[in-house]
Structure formats: structure tokens, C-alpha cells
Design goal:
heterodimer, A: 222 residues, mainly alpha, 8 helices, 0% strand, globular, disordered N terminus, disordered C terminus, B: 257 residues, alpha+beta, Sulfite Oxidase, Chain A, domain 2, 2 domains, four-stranded mixed β-sheet
């Protein structure tokens, strides 16, 4: 079910994380941090949850005007990088190959194993069902942030979209929830990466070389 | 009550004044280049932020680039959603860079609207003069840059009608406003000519109350709240960038909805 892994340094195969993916991953990490922390600065000007503020040291921008400027600068980085990532993922087949299919039985199995602290991670070249689901959720949340963000940036130009989202304030809340989902993912993602540091190294150096480019099933080593 | 619009720590306006020549020195081409140079931005977010003014300049350059993008996104024929009169909030929400207690009422009897710049007939206007022009009522959402919003009902002469009436150069770039509370503001001509941009003199069918701009304020459905100056005393049509109160403190100038 998984691509076989050859010895490191094989010349013919493709890396687990090809260079474009690594570059886009780290650009995205910076963009996400800019968007989340500047978004907290904007949020604090008129809170959604009464009494809930983000501490000043967590916010990017020393007050709302600069948080907004960061946010509207970071949006280009996030959106352009995100579009190229999705385009790349679709054209090369990487998204489908790595994130699909997800089987419910597999999902339940992984959850059970996780709860018993028996999570398998000897092979970092394939994602388990929970990982697949989480990556899909965070990609959808990222797309949703762009859509709800456009709605609250341009509620008159995109008034149809705003009413589809249930109005301006509801679009705002959805934008906030999207942030919370991505932030939750981010925390989990970083903690798990720190628990298996090989994955961090792989995202920097490329990771193990896959046996046969594009093959997902029963790929015998050369 | 403190205005919710006022930030906790207001930066010293002198910072911007001191750097005005630098900000002004950006040419459009340079702005776009800088705007696209997002790689530079990434590096600026790193550890070497020894010169925060460089970061600020970069952010302002991107904000000016975004103003151009906003102008491109603006559809002059797209109307903002309107609402039934029953949904009008009474009274409207007060907002300014100072507390509602500090509002200095304007005497409507002696009030005059001064005109300047690229306008053929620059005679001053009284409130009766304004109300003699065709009026329009709109029930629209007010959206503040902070995030809150409310539905308000406004009546007045469309700015477009007024500008045509006084023979303004409608190809000029900016319409600028001066106010009794020292809150300069300006909008682009396309937004000024939008059918939902009014010189408002009434709220919910009644004469505008003092805290909300009596005798006349700008009310446009296509801009954020801070682009709606109250107690307007002068209008200028110009091609020279006029800026505005919050704009000189870092907020986006276009601020279109």
C-alpha cells in the first residue's frame, strides 16, 4: 500500500518532498503566522467573543492600522503561494496521491492506535488516515479563509457571496472560526513534528527518495 | 464614554510627518514593484528588524498598491444591499477620534459649505440650498474598519447630482472634505459619483442630530465608516492626493467596500 523506500541517495527516484513543495511549505508557514498574528490585532479592535482579547505581545502590528497593513500585505503571500501549491498539487497528482483515499475503517483504526499511544511512524513517506483528513481539513480551511476574507474585505463588490455566508457579521465569525481551525492544526502539526524530528528534516532536505515516481501501489525496489 | 475607534496606544503623529518626504517619494512604478516584492517582506519579518521604519515603509507601499487593486475591484454600477426602513438603528452609532461628550455642535443657520478646486461655480451653499436639490434616501449598512456594523437610513442630495450642479470637473481624481471637527478626508471620483454616495442631512427621516454630523455629512455605501466625514464645511475637487485623518496614521486610503 505504500511506496517502497530505497536507500538514501538514490538518483532515479523522486524525493518525498520535492523542492517546490518544501519552498511553498515554508513560505506558507511564514504567511500563516503573519495572517494569524496580524488578524489577532484586528480582532482585538472589536472582539467577537466578549471579554476575549489576544495579548499585545502575540499581535503583529502595534495597533489596528498596522495589523491591517500586515494582514493586507500577508494576504498576497498566502493567496499566491496557496494557489501555486494547489495548482502544483493537482497537476502533479501529489494531492490525490498523498491525501486520498481515506477509509473510515482506517480512520477508526488510527484513532484507536493513537489513543493507546501506539502510533506508527516508522515510515514517514505515507500518511495515516487521520493525517490525510487533517491535511484536507486545513487546506479547505485555508481556501475558506480566502473566500470569507474576500467577503469581509469587499462586502459590497461581493455582496452575493456575503449573503451566501449569512451576512457580514456571520462572514466575520466564519473568518474567525477558520483561523481557529488553522491555528489548532498548526499546534498539533508542530507538536507532532517535534515528536518525530525526522519529518522536520525531511521538509528541509527533501526526505527519503521514493522508489518509483508517481507509483502508489506495489512498487518493488529497483 | 471613550470612542471605541480610538486605539489604546495612539502613535505619535509626528512619526508620519517626519517621514512624509520619504512616503511621498515613492513613485507609482516603485510602489507596484515593491508591492510585488513580497520576498522582501518575508525577509523583513525575520530577525533583522533593526530598522522598523523600513518595515513601515514597505507596508505603506503595499497598502498604496492595494489601493490601486481596490480601485480596480470597484464596480461603479454595483449597488450596496439596501434594507427596509424598519431595520434602521435609532440613534445611529457614534464614532469619532474623540468622545461623544466632546462633540462641538455646528450652528446650522450660519453654516456654509465652501467649494474650491476644479469647480466652475464656487459660491458657498446654505443648508436650504442643498435641500432644494433632488434628494435621495438610502437604507444601508455602515461597516467600521474595526469590524462592527449597523443599518442606517440616510437622506440627502447625491454627491453626483451636487457635483454636476456646481460644474465640477468629473474627470478629476479626488473629492476632498474639510470638517468642523478637523477631520480631513477624501475619496476617489468614481466612488464620489456612485449613486449611493450622499451629502446627508437627515437620518431616519429626521434632521441629522448633532453627534452625527448636523447639518451635513458624507454618507457613502461603498466605503468603510472612517471615509464618511461628519460636519462637512468644505469640498474640494482636485487631482492632488489630499489624504485624510486616519490615512495619515497608517490606514488604507481607498477603504472601499
Amino acid at each position: 500500500m505504500s511506496a517502497a523506500v530505497t536507500a538514501r541517495g538514490g538518483r532515479t527516484g523522486r524525493r518525498l518532498h520535492p523542492l517546490p513543495v518544501r519552498i511553498m511549505h515554508w513560505i506558507n508557514a511564514v504567511a500563516m503566522l503573519i495572517m494569524i498574528t496580524s488578524g489577532w490585532g484586528i480582532y482585538d479592535d472589536d472582539v467577537i467573543i466578549r471579554g476575549f482579547h489576544f495579548a499585545k505581545f502575540l499581535r503583529l502590528g502595534d495597533w489596528a492600522a498596522w495589523s491591517l497593513n500586515w494582514h493586507f500585505a500577508g494576504m498576497w503571500l498566502l493567496a499566491i503561494n496557496g494557489l501555486i501549491y494547489l495548482g502544483y498539487g493537482v497537476v502533479t497528482g501529489r494531492l490525490r496521491e498523498r491525501l486520498l483515499p481515506i477509509r473510515v475503517s482506517e480512520l477508526l483504526h488510527t484513532v484507536r492506535e493513537t489513543l493507546h499511544f501506539r502510533l506508527e511512524h516508522a515510515d514517514i513517506t505515507t500518511y495515516n488516515a487521520v493525517q490525510k483528513l487533517l491535511y484536507i481539513i486545513v487546506i479547505l480551511a485555508g481556501i475558506s479563509q480566502v473566500v470569507t476574507g474576500l467577503a469581509i474585505w469587499k462586502p459590497v463588490q461581493f455582496s452575493g457571496l456575503v449573503s451566501l455566508l449569512g451576512g457580514f457579521q456571520s462572514a466575520r465569525v466564519l473568518h474567525f472560526i477558520g483561523m481557529a481551525v488553522i491555528f489548532g492544526f498548526l499546534v498539533l502539526h508542530v507538536v507532532l513534528a517535534l515528536l518525530v524530528p525526522r519529518t522536520i528534516w525531511a521538509m528541509l532536505a527533501g526526505g527519503p527518495v521514493l522508489a518509483r515516481p508517481g507509483s502508489r501501489a506495489k512498487a518493488p525496489g529497483p | 464614554m471613550r470612542s471605541p475607534f480610538r486605539p489604546d496606544d495612539v502613535p505619535d503623529p509626528a512619526i508620519l510627518d517626519n517621514h512624509r518626504p520619504l512616503i511621498k517619494s515613492f513613485e507609482r512604478r516603485g510602489l507596484i514593484r515593491r508591492g510585488l516584492s513580497l520576498g522582501a517582506l518575508v525577509m523583513l519579518t525575520g530577525c533583522d528588524v533593526k530598522r522598523p521604519e523600513a518595515v513601515e515603509s514597505a507596508l505603506l507601499a503595499i497598502s498604496r498598491f492595494n489601493d490601486e487593486v481596490q480601485a480596480l475591484l470597484f464596480d461603479p454600477n454595483k449597488l450596496a444591499p439596501t434594507y427596509p426602513a424598519s431595520m434602521i438603528l435609532k440613534p445611529p452609532k457614534f464614532n469619532a477620534y474623540y468622545d461623544v461628550m466632546d462633540v462641538k455642535p455646528v450652528n446650522g443657520a450660519t453654516w456654509r459649505l465652501e467649494l474650491s478646486g476644479l469647480i466652475a461655480d464656487r459660491r458657498p451653499w446654505t443648508i436650504q440650498d442643498l435641500q432644494a436639490l433632488p434628494q435621495r434616501t438610502i437604507v444601508i449598512k455602515h461597516i467600521c474598519v474595526e469590524g462592527w456594523s449597523y443599518i442606517g437610513g440616510w437622506t440627502g442630495v447625491p454627491l453626483r447630482t451636487f457635483l454636476q450642479h456646481v460644474g465640477a470637473d468629473l474627470r478629476a481624481k479626488y473629492v476632498a472634505f474639510k470638517t468642523a471637527d478637523d477631520y480631513p478626508s477624501s475619496i476617489d471620483m468614481a466612488s464620489a459619483l456612485h449613486p449611493q454616495t450622499l451629502l446627508a442631512t437627515e437620518y431616519a427621516g429626521e434632521t441629522l442630530a448633532d453627534p452625527f454630523g448636523y447639518p451635513m455629512r458624507l454618507r457613502t455605501a461603498v466605503k468603510l465608516g472612517y471615509k464618511n466625514p461628519k460636519w462637512v464645511t468644505a469640498i474640494e475637487v482636485t487631482n492632488k492626493y489630499p489624504g485624510g485623518y486616519w490615512e495619515s496614521r497608517g490606514f488604507s486610503w481607498f477603504a472601499g467596500l
